[in-house]
């Protein structure tokens, strides 16, 4: 039995949803895509930026914008989850305009190296997205 199958069965027994479960991803993907598209609009992401952040081709993103709701894979669900957490954390820290603008401002912190958070996340993929999420949560928590 593969590790993914074992994890999926264990989560099912415990009644937890997981991004490893095809059934859970199929159920959550429509909402995840809708939330991501709303987030992309709020952050004024270009098509290329949005596609890179969610991990799809620009043409796939265009289809999503036109109403296609594919089942996202585990990596894409993780990306959307991290980005939604960043969005929520920023909106708890700042008023709306600043929360959305923060991602476009170069940051001198070691995580960003004078890049914008969007650039850092595109360059670093999921690990960078999770780092940015932890960073925003830490700032929000007063650390």
Summarize the structure in short.
By secondary structure, this protein is mostly helical. It has seven helices and no strands.
> What percent strand?
under 5%
H/E series: HHHHHHH
Catalogue the unreliable spans: none
Quickly give the structural class: mainly alpha
Q: How is the biggest beta sheet arranged?
A: none
Q: Portion of residues in helices?
A: 55-70%
Q: How many structural domains? A: 1
Distance between the termini: 42 Å
Shape: globular
**Helix count, DSSP H or I runs of 4 or more residues:** 7
What does this structure look like?
This protein has 143 residues and is mainly alpha-helical. The protein has one domain. It is built from 7 helices and no strands. Helix 3 packs across helix 4 and helix 5 packs across helix 7. The protein is globular. It starts with a helix and ends with a helix. The mean pLDDT is 89.
Key descriptive features of the protein:
about 140 residues; mainly alpha; 7 helices
List the helices and strands and how they pair.
Blueprint (H helix, E strand, L loop, with lengths): L2 H12 L7 H21 L4 H8 L3 H8 L8 H20 L2 H6 L15 H24 L3
Helix pairs in contact: 2-5, 3-4, 5-7
